[in-house]
Write a structure and sequence with these properties.
Elements lengths: L1 H63 L8 H8 L11 E5 L5 E4 L10 H13 L3 E4 L8 E11 L5 E12 H4 L10 E6 L5 E4 L9 H5 L3 H8 L7 E5 L2 E7 L6 E7 L5 H4 L3 H25 L23 H7 L7 E5 L2 E5 L1 H7 L6 H5 L8 H14 L1 E9 L5 E10 L6 E7 L3 H4 L20 H15 L16 E9 L2 H7 L2 H19 L4 E6 L2 E7 L3 H16 L4 E2 L2 E2 L4 E9 L5 H17 L5 E3 L11
Parallel strand pairs: 21-22
Antiparallel strand pairs: 1-2, 1-5, 3-4, 4-5, 6-7, 6-10, 8-9, 9-10, 11-12, 11-15, 13-14, 14-15, 16-18, 16-21, 17-18, 19-20
Length: 623
Amino acid sequence: MLAVLALLLVLSSMLTAFFWTRMADAHAQERLVAQQNLEADLWARMLTARMEAHQRLLDSIAQGMHSSLLDKPAVLDALMQQEGSMLRLFESLHVALPSGEISHHGALGAVVDIDTSGTTSLRRTMTEGKPSVTYLNLVGDIQHLSVLLSVPIRQLDGSVAGALGAKVKLPIAALMPKMGEEKDKVQYALLDSEGTVLAHSLMLQQKMTAEELFGTHMTQWSALSQPSTANADTQVWGDTLASRVGLPLPQWQAVILRDLSAESVWQRGVPPMLWLSWLLSAGVLLALGTAALRMRHPDSRMPEEAPRAVDAEEEHLPDWKWLDAAWGAVPVAMMVEQCGQIRTMTPQARVLLGYFQHDAEQVLSLELVLDTVQEQAAVRNALTNFGSYEGVLQLRKKDGDALSVQAVVRACSHHTDFTVWRLQLPWQSRADMPLPDKEHAWHDSLTGLPNRDAFMWGLQSWVSDSMQAPTEAVSAHVSMPTQGCVLFADIDHLGMMNETATREMGNRLLRHVGRLMADHTQPLGQMARLGGDEFAVLLPGVSLAHAQAVAQSLCDAVWGWQPHWSGERHWVSISIGVVAMDAQRHTPQQALRAADMACYEAKRRGRCQVAVGQISAQPALQA
């Protein structure tokens, strides 16, 4: 009887598992289809907005060109070579002349040309009077997607007098959605009307054909891609979830392919209700088996497991990963050290020592390196005798350079082998001087950050202080460094967001980007909002490589934000220019202008990236 009952329980558990698995898989698939459909729509809108922004800019340039210049390509080229001309906005410009010839205009001395598809597109635009976008196949460059935008040049009466084309290099990394943890099972691809893969989330998959990308699913793809609509379509092809959405300009198709083989209930984890049914069945079986054994052997007893002794210290050891996440809101450069090894640190301390978000695992195993044995002995003796240490120490950054920090070290009362460190640049207390003329407005009313006047005052103060020789009261470690860097950041397409969303969305965006920049630069220097969508950061004593890493971390943080507004997700990015500055050779105006030009270069390359500029050498300044 017991055997029959046990068999029935096992069969019921198996049937329950089967039906729960089917229901869970069907529900998960419906959720993934809706999610991927929305993701494809948002990605296509982002790509369309980027292309339309370039197209509108080119169209405004074409409207400002006088038709009399079309017959004078030499004069037109001379105008384009002038400083501040429209040529700096693109890689090159190309004009289809009324005679049918095409004039090419690039940077001074550069050889500029386009392939046959580009010239055909320009002539077709002049003939039909319609804008177009053409893919340019550049051999050897897998990091960028090169396109030729073309718009008609019209006379006052509306007739077409020529065509203006611009070559644009778009970074493929900025065109692809953020991959996250699903990069091994999700593919993003852009295809042209001929079926060529123009861009792929995996660089090695570019320049493929549709047959190579879809393989055995080519028939399903042909049915999905025809007709090409502007709304996302999603289908399940066996173990692949495929989404496609068409772009109005250019006539491309955005494709998302997700591997569903790892999305079954067994890979994701068994649902709680299924676990509960199994546990109940197992409990009933165990109870029946135990009762049967006791009925046959009344004196038998189940052996009891001896309790494991738990060390009192083990219960109170911190979870470093949890603490590392919790410290993200601490606006101070602090870290916890145990026996010479860093256990966790705040984001400000990471920035100070050159470690960023992608170095999280490396930080947990990082050794605290003091520059000299004497410093190690001084810290150890002070902690042993007094429980704390305060003074200037030399720490090793990620790049191997020594960094002078004003350190306040405290030993933990409950765990003597743990110490808490608070770090600050020694000269930073000198930089926090009160601004003159308190009646003057030194802060931006929208973000609460220092404004342009405060930034220029701090920049000029650094130049003046760096020329003062160290005194007995001010050591060489505490004196203001003469070398440093200036960052100039600009939010990409903020005006378009104000139009497509609302100005309130733009204001919130400015405030949040300002907070992100303050969090990433606070321990190293001073930042300000210059006005509009422009920010600047002064980093005295920071190397160019370190400043580039800070700027790239800022770009990644802003791009990874992706806020939601009115039910839609928005892609936000910034472009940053970085220049190295010598306070004894360069003026504040020269440094800020050079950083601005470097930021302009980052935008010209496709935005959402960092560009390094250079300040022209100047005679030594007088203190």
